[in-house]
Amino acid sequence: MTGEYVYCVVRAAGRPSMTRVPAGIPGGGRPGVRPIAPSLWIVAAAVPLDVYGPSALEPRLRDLDWVAQVAVAHEAVVEHCSRARGATVIPMKLFTLFSSPERAAADVLARRRTIDRTMRRIAGAEEWGVRVFRQAVAPDAKPSAAPVSGADFLRARKQARDAVAGARAAAAAAAELAFDRLRRLARDARVRESRAEPGTNPPLLDAAFLVASSSRARFHAEVRRQARAAADAGAELTLTGPWPAYNFVGGESA
Predict the structure, then answer these.
(1) Per residue in 61-116, pLDDT tens?
(2) Coil, strand or helix: which one is 6?
(3) Please, which pLDDT band fits residue 135 given cuts at 50, 70 and 90?
(4) Alpha helices of 48-200 — where are they, by DSSP H?
(5) Domains of the chain by range and CATH?
(6) Beta-strand pair 40-48/125-134
(7) Which of 168, 166, 240 has its CA nearest to residue 201?
(8) Rounded to whole angstroms, how far apart are CA atoms 147 and 136?
(9) How many whole angstroms separate alpha carbon 175 and alpha carbon 46?
């Protein structure tokens, strides 16, 4: 038995091309296009329920390598659709599954008003990710001279703590400034929560920006300016994208 796995909803004047579309998730059929309404389509594929059905899927979710493989394949199909000229794409969440193509179509049509509103908001735009990390400070190659008294030792410790606190504050300020400046050039911006794991260097900023394609050059120029400012403050700014608008579709992605 099979179910209907949905990758994304597409708004396009004509039928989206599936030429050279990636193979899709492991074990599933080739992704294809299903018409839903005038200019509205879903990209989906049949998948075996003994792999992707609810009872079979739950234990597989503990295999993180397999989940990562599925996620990469899912993303490849969504990105393929996003590159089509004139298309606006709402990505579906990983493992969005329906019992039949008819159920998938009915779900999209039931949320048509919300989907149309989201399509208007993200049309002609792309998502870019920006992260700011505090640069690791290398320890001094040579130890400083031993303090001659207890007071000297305490003074040196305080100066070291103050220097570290100052560096952290400068890097955090650079991250805050970068977000503020880049947000002005975007339709929308979201700060994503980052979990601090022991022994890691969590980002000072992990943000997504919805940028109109016409503003891409200005946005990238500002990213370069903020990257230089961040480096001067002891931080590193990285840019990724463009991505489908995963962070700006809210509950519309099912």
Answers:
(1) 999 999 999 999 999 999 999 988 889 999 999 999 999 999 999 999 999 999 99
(2) strand
(3) confident
(4) 49-52, 54-60, 64-82, 101-110, 112-122, 150-183
(5) 2-123 (no CATH), 125-246 (3.30.70)
(6) unpaired
(7) 168
(8) 26
(9) 44
